[in-house]
Specification:
It comes from Saccharibacillus kuerlensis. This protein is mostly helical. It has 27 helices and no strands. Helix 14 packs parallel to helix 24.
Length: 610
């Protein structure tokens, strides 16, 4: 799920502090940016030409995506300007506790790769609502689509465009450059980003999105590594090692990822609300997992998903450490915490790389935007239009309807996005709160549908309606209606609602148990042989997550009396030895059993027979 930027709105008075480039340099940046963007567009076009003539080719890339393209697209789909700027702003302002949203996503990725993806591909589905219709009924399918559309059109897509526009305006003085007002600049950038992103999504389909995402992902990794290196060199007066030593020994508490109760992400929240939020985002959010649904087989889907989990471990290094470097370089002299990354980039990145950086930044925005657009159009076409209005529609008509709907969503989102400038302070926190309207009920009914066979469709419908009302009351309603502030962090509300709603479904299933067992059909459209290193890679990924928290903790780099504590090396050594032993054991003992488990027919699974 994307991290909300905890900062004030960007008003015109901040722009006295924003880096101003010379006009000649700006035009060089813009032209070189257009070159790199054009190169990505050309390569994407060449690799996808003639691949979108069928509905499967358009919506699911012909079910032919390899693990590399899946991982690259997942990475760029997840990352956007609001994280690049916002996470670094949090590193500048506080510490690394916000890395929980990113690093612990690996746990949800493991659940997707080993458990849920085999079920999705085994059912031969194209969308999550379709999967729910097979387990429940079409009523649940339509309610789920409604939840997704509410979140995408009113919250996620506009905020993605808005954050991208603000990122560009932080780096370049657009009003002065073009002689227009702040508001006009915002509208201009939003519509430019929206139109370019829509072209990828509407006319290229999922394969074009995946290819362009992968290319932009390579660029993001290059920039992500380069910026902190340049920052360390600046901090160490030319010595990268001295710069590293400075952040490890001066104010080491900035490197602590173990959040306290006063931090925006308390450590306990990792095991409650964040766990379920990540589980939804990485295991059931259509615009994220649509790439894995387009995998050529299960093995490639698992490779792509798990590789993206390893990429997430890099996020603290190039999306939070630069913020810490900016703290040491500029102290508290920045007008907004969210100027930390743009200021560092503008001061340290060579001018000849500025266009490449801007292209990568916009690529991340395009990725999130066009992925959301593609998924919204896919769900509307396959989950609403086709089953309700045209069950016999051919591929050409389905693609045409998808393009029309995608265009409508793009225009509406581009019209809403600039209006967010009028929102009160705390906009980004509000966006995360609004995500709570649809993430928890969807993951609850999905998991309960898989884990139970007698819970009826009515239980899912009750939970959806209950959640919308109860979530509003817990987060806003009691205070707005009765003046009673419950003092509950909305992340904890996520966890509370998950268990309450799972309990509601079990009770309804017990009281109104259906006579028939609901079973998800097994109709795989590709090879269901798992990747032979899936379990081993999952073990190593989980171990690496633990290692990240050891590294960024009071026994690691946040140690106050040196670079690391005496306990650091023994803890890391023990973790590595244990991970290697369990991995080797998994290859010998678990791989065969796991493959056998996945290849059981539904009847064999029901009777627990080989």
């Amino acid at each position: 799920m994307s991290l909300a930027v905890d900062a004030c709105m960007y008003k015109e008075e901040f722009y006295v502090e924003v880096v101003r480039l010379e006009v000649s340099n700006i035009w060089f940046t813009l032209l070189s940016c257009l070159f790199f963007m054009g190169l990505v567009a050309y390569i994407s076009y060449r690799l996808t030409k003639g691949e979108v003539n069928s509905s499967e080719g358009y919506f699911l890339a012909g079910r032919g995506l390899s693990g590399t393209f899946i991982a690259g697209s997942l990475l760029l789909t997840n990352l956007s300007a609001e994280q690049l700027i916002g996470l670094n702003g949090q590193g500048y302002r506080a510490n690394l506790s916000n890395m929980a949203w990113e690093v612990t996503a690996g746990v949800a990725v493991i659940v997707l790769a080993l458990y849920l993806l085999p079920k999705y591909l085994g059912a031969g589905i194209s969308t999550i609502p379709e999967f729910l219709s097979k387990r429940y009924d079409d009523g649940v399918r339509r309610l789920t689509v409604l939840l997704f559309m509410f979140g995408y059109i009113l919250v996620t897509i506009p905020s993605t465009l808005y954050s991208g526009a603000l990122a560009v305006m932080q780096l370049f003085d657009i009003p002065s450059l073009f002689g227009i007002s702040y508001g006009q600049s915002l509208w201009l950038i939003v519509w430019i980003i929206g139109i370019i992103g829509a072209i990828y999504a509407i006319f290229g389909g999922l394969r074009a999105v995946a290819v362009s995402d992968t290319l932009n992902g390579i660029g993001l990794l290059i920039i992500g590594i380069l910026v902190p290196i340049l920052g360390f060199i600046a901090l160490g007066d030319g010595s990268i090692l001295q710069g590293m030593k400075t952040i490890a020994t001066q104010a080491p508490e900035k490197l602590n990822a173990i959040g306290s109760s006063t931090d925006s992400v308390p450590f306990a929240a990792i095991f409650t609300g964040i766990l379920f939020a990540n589980l939804f985002y990485w295991s059931s959010n259509q615009y994220v997992i649509q790439r894995t649904l387009g995998a050529k087989n299960l093995a490639e889907g698992q490779k792509g998903a798990l590789l993206s989990g390893y990429f997430k471990l890099l996020i603290p290094f190039f999306m939070m450490i630069p913020g810490v470097i900016a703290f040491h370089l500029y102290g508290g002299n920045l007008a907004s915490v969210d100027l930390a990354y743009p200021t560092l980039v503008a001061n340290e990145l060579p001018i000849y790389l500025s266009g490449f950086f801007l292209a990568v930044l916009l690529g991340a925005v395009f990725s999130s935007f066009n992925s959301l657009l593609n998924s919204a159009a896919t769900m509307f076409t396959l989950d609403v239009y086709k089953p309700l209005f045209a069950p016999n529609a051919d591929d050409r008509k389905l693609i045409r309807i998808s393009k029309i709907f995608g265009t409508i969503v793009a225009v509406v989102s581009m019209a809403i996005s600039p209006l967010l400038v009028n929102a009160p302070d705390g906009l980004w926190d509000l966006i995360r709160k609004f995500t709570g309207f649809f993430n928890i009920p969807i993951i609850v009914i999905l998991l309960m549908g898989i884990w139970t066979k007698k819970v009826p469709p009515m239980a899912a419908k009750v939970v959806i309606i209950f959640h919308v009302i109860a979530y509003y009351m817990l987060v806003w309603g009691t205070d707005q209606l009765f003046g009673l502030d419950l003092g509950l962090n909305f992340v904890y509300v996520y966890g509370i609602m998950f268990f309450v709603e799972a309990g509601i479904m079990l009770v309804i299933g017990r009281v109104g148990k259906s006579r028939e067992s609901y079973r998800i059909p097994y109709r795989p459209r590709g090879d269901m042989t798992p990747w032979k290193y899936a379990i081993m890679s999952s073990i190593l990924l989980f171990s690496a997550i633990i290692g990240m928290y050891i590294l960024f903790s009071p026994i690691g780099l946040a140690y106050s009396d040196g670079i690391v504590s005496p306990w650091f090396l023994p803890a890391i050594t023990a973790l590595i030895v244990l991970a290697v032993l369990i991995s080797l054991w998994s290859i010998r003992k678990w791989n065969g059993r796991y493959a056998h488990y996945l290849n059981r027919t539904p009847d064999q699974a029901e009777n627990h027979t080989p």
